[in-house]
Design brief:
The chain has about 350 residues and is mainly α. About 80% of the residues lie in helices and about 0% in strands.
Length: about 350
């Protein structure tokens, strides 16, 4: 005991005070950083789960209710500046981690369910939508950089593709904001509307999942729409969408090569690696090879649903409708036309090829 006391006495009190002060600064930094935004996202998530249990709202999943509640909050009350970091954390990191955990609900046998024709539908839809959007943008006079951002966001994976594509397009910040806002708007419309169209279009769960995965903009929006129509539909939609996401890196590389041809700067932009796609595939493989206990799968499923809902709530909080007025109607018309094209073109392929 005396040796412990001696060692404690040898530690400078100034060092202890400095360490305590540093700890307080770290806590203050966390509180002023991501915690307020996560608390706001969690509150909206709780509202969404509660509303799901109310008669009349049970038709909609908590994920859909969360994105709508987030959009209403941000555009009516405004999003606090000190909450933005936590909202961004929820939309990016939480959402991607939830997608990785979603792999525990799938096996390689289910992944193979979309088949070669499904992969072909996804690839053809992506390429056709990108070319259509770029061509139409040139015809109606939309700046080519903004048109590329809208094309990438529509054809690949929403805001993530826009941010990734901007690495090589180097568009203005307001163009990026405009593209994200328009893609979020039309992706949300698709998420809410497509499940309602499924019965009228005569789509079974497999066909609807493939259509949703091949056409809806954001990963979370695809998941929200897919699982709204059933478990099988949600699984097929997730796999089809992640197939699109996996095509992000090749698309950015191609755009980088095109940009280098137009520019004297021969430095190649480094395309981002969609790491969560690789992690998702790894988890699916693990779930296919190892017998995961049912209790663990149930806990994972609940955690996944909560985190996906939080990610969608954050996405709603990031959607600023006022940004759509910043660049006029032509880019909005382009985004709307691209939205209609990818929906109709992929539906045609699903009906006649899938």
């Amino acid at each position: 005991m005396s040796s412990v006391t001696r060692i404690a006495n040898e530690i400078p009190k100034s060092k202890i005070s400095a360490d305590l002060a540093a700890g307080r600064r770290r806590l203050d930094s966390a509180w002023n950083g991501i915690i307020p935004g996560i608390v706001l996202v969690a509150m909206i998530t709780a509202v969404a789960f509660s509303a799901h249990n109310v008669s009349g709202f049970a038709l909609f999943s908590p994920m859909i209710l969360a994105v709508v509640a987030g959009m209403v909050y941000s555009n009516v009350l405004g999003t606090p500046a000190h909450a933005k970091a936590g909202i961004a954390f929820s939309q990016k990191r939480l959402l991607r981690f939830a997608i990785v955990l979603l792999g525990f609900q799938l096996t390689l046998g289910q992944v193979a369910a979309i088949g070669a024709s499904g992969v072909g539908i996804v690839a053809l839809t992506l390429a056709s939508t990108f070319v259509f959007t770029i061509t139409l943008g040139r015809l109606i006079g939309v700046d080519h950089k903004l048109a590329q951002l809208i094309a990438a966001g529509t054809s690949i994976c929403g805001a993530s593709a826009i941010v990734a594509t901007n690495i090589v397009t180097d568009a203005r910040d307001e163009d990026v904001t405009y593209a994200v806002a328009s893609i979020t708007l039309f992706g949300t419309i698709a998420m809410l509307g497509f499940p309602l169209l499924a019965p009228m279009l005569g789509l079974d769960q497999h066909a609807f999942g493939l259509w949703a995965g091949a056409s809806i903009h954001e990963v979370a929006q695809v998941i929200g729409a897919g699982f709204q129509n059933g478990t099988q539909s949600g699984e097929i939609a997730t796999v089809a969408k992640l197939t699109r996401v996996a095509m992000l890196a090749p698309m950015v590389i191609a755009l980088g090569l095109m940009a280098r041809r137009r520019s004297s700067d021969q430095s190649a932009a480094r395309p981002p690696m969609p790491w969560f796609v690789a992690a998702f595939v790894a988890v699916v493989a693990l779930n296919s090879l190892v017998a995961v206990p049912t209790e663990v799968k149930s806990a994972m499923a609940l955690a996944t649903t909560i985190m996906l809902t939080m990610g969608l709530a954050a996405m709603g909080l990031q959607a600023d409708i006022s940004q759509l007025r910043s660049r006029g109607l032509r880019p909005l018309a382009l985004a709307f036309s691209a939205f209609l094209f990818i929906g109709c073109f992929s539906l045609m392929l699903v009906k006649f090829v899938g």
